[in-house]
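Q: My labmate handed me this sequence with no annotations at all. I'd like to see what the chain might look like in three dimensions before we decide whether it's worth expressing. Could you predict it?
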Amino acid sequence: MVEVFGATSTTEDVLSGINLRGKRILVTGVSAGLGVETARSLAAHGAQVVGAARDLTKAEAATTEVRKAAAANGGSLELIELDLASLKSVRACTDRLLANKEPVDVVIANAGIMATPFSLTMDGFETQFGTNHLCHFLFVNRIAPLIRKGGRLINLSSAGHRFSNVDLDDPNFERTPYDPFVAYGRSKTANILFAVAFDQRHRDRGVRAAAVHPGVIQTELGRHVDPVRIASMIEQMSKQLAAEGKSSFQWKTIPQGAATSVWAGVVAPADEIGCRYCENCHVGQLVAEDVTISGVSEGVRAYALDPNTAEALWRKSEQLVGESF
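A: Here is what I predict for the chain of 325 residues:
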């Protein structure tokens, strides 16, 4: 019988009885929040975890419990430097990984930023699109040869993808008025579309890709958002949940938030999650485009899974990062 998990499942719930010894799993963004918990839970079940972070000093301090869990259960943690706002840093990091020639079983592209004021990365990309999508696109594609047959790519997306489809004609808001949540939505839609296109390219060798929404969690991710706006969004979500006959909104804990990443990465059947969007430890269903971000508690927009848009985004991303895959 297959265990059924849901919104309140934790990393320990989904990994109960799972032995990950011999698995090498790369996680980006291991200096805080979901990334640290994802790394901890995997290492606690014997995985060799490679954690990428921009600030290694911060990551070292944040991963004390990860190392303890690893030491007690046959796992390990290795930290590598990766600044996802810099193509130069991505290339340097991937060059080192490729030179070491150590294969990986799963890549969890966890790092990200949300609703930031307008700015550009050092390469001239709108910061959210550049950090959340473009640098991950370059990072993952450069190390794709290291992913073992039967491996997986898990991209952290968000229900926030419902704020906007990608805009391949104006990715840097040069002609469009900048809105922090629209920019966030574009980048989170891009995370899903990247998983779709990556899955199509690699499934023949048994490598599958999926995108996941971790849920709404209180982490550093929300540091740029006005608390008043957060309160308003939560009120709207609670009203909609009530209209659906469900309990009022509840924040997820960090172990609950990381559970879907872990479930999709090492627990769920590959064919179940490949080329899909997952949330609350199950595959998400399509939601109509006339439904607002707070208008339904779950679901994925059809535009985020559209294979033609995924291909167009792939080509645009190759153009922007200056490499073809």
